[in-house]
Fold Radical SAM domain protein.
Amino acid sequence: MNERLRKRIKERLEAERGTIYKDAPVRVTLAYPNTYAVAMASLGFQVVYRMFNAEPEFACERAFLEDAEYVRKGELPTYESGRRAGDCHIFGISVAFELDLVNIVRLLEAAGLEPFRDRRDAQDPVVIIGGPLTSSNPHPLRPFADVILIGDGEETVPALAEAWRNASSKTEFLDLIEGLPGVFLPDREERDPRWATARVDCLPVYSQIITPNTELPSMFLIEVERGCPRPCTFCLARVMYGPTRNADPERVLAVVPDGVEKVGLIGAALSDYPHVKYVGHKLLERGVKLAVSSIRADRVDHELAWILKEGGLRTFTIAADGPSQRLRELLKKQIKLEHLYKAARIARDLKFKGLKLYQMIGLPTETDDDITEMIEFTKELAEITPVALGISPFVPKRHTPHFNDRFAGIRVIEARLKRIQKELRKLRPRVEVRNTSAKWAWIEAVIARGGPEVGRAAYLLKDRESFSAWKTALREVGWHDPRTLPDPPEETERLELRVV
């Protein structure tokens, strides 16, 4: 192993609390197609790590694509023992984001595995892919995975482990899990399976490892609710995670270890969790700082905001999601201007640094008038408290009413972003505007609604990924979707087609 990488892994392990070191007959690699810092901020990644290690005869170790740059192809190491990541019985990948699709190809090659399922044989590990992306759209992953898990890992991981113990071969293992909730076998099935849905007594789930070397430094994460009671049409939370399940507050408090300095509460609609204030007060009494994943503007009051401020929150974060009241009603967002103004006044009264406001543009039926309304109410909010406006292009997703809506178009989105920046620039520093790329939102939209051909296109990009290269690769594999046109036309590079 490269000495620089060896030193980095050693330092990261020494900084961790909760690492599991285990030797067992069944070796599992749990890999993440991005950096260590991003992976260790993923509660789902950590929970699956703990669950596999809790199974008799199973030992699970972690690997991260980030480390591939320090080793030769095929020699990506695991953290716990330093063995080759591909030297295992089960190679699991947890993927959260559409834009990590190409990284999955890179990860498999870094571990010494053929990316394409049909090029591997019975002696290779079973490649299992799970995570939020598989619930959103598993089909671009079909060329690569032997098994795709859809839904809650609390239900699928024990079932997989039991089947493995009872199987005498890779084929028999697949036979035993075929048809189970949440199990999708790409070489045998075309349609998504029933999603696996965990029982409420599986909650809360919580961090296994605490580390300062993550996007959420030294934070102990707890998921206190799963599912969402809200009807927002653009969001997958209600569909992906099933009915709303709320963890018992005493169980939430009981899982927080002694010595933890900061707790992050997680839930799709955390402010709808009926015990959020009770849990918040109890953690403050223990001297624990507090962070939250999301707060809805229509549920904010001074008491909840005070808890968050006392817990260390400095900027108050909410989402409008629609630039106008008309569009928020179209999205069934249930947020009105009065809710946004109230949140701004609370942020001012409690002396938060300001308001962070998430917004989407490029929505169905959106016009310049909707953008005008957003600009005007942002100005009004800025008179109350400083505003950091975070803007993302709208990406239609499967399993939502917007599945067949057109992507607004790169030119349209870029023109509206330019207008917003120009008209709000004069209000700096009271207003800061940050936005994500319209071009990469287009790629995200392609992956979010694409099929196996999009996965084959991703394979062509493993050595050089760019917006232009994506368009060329999609053309090479015969992709076509009139809902997501490749706009604007650009000079594209020629990629040799290496997929059959």
Summary: Residues 488-500 have pLDDT under 50 and may be disordered. The longest strand covers residues 354-361.
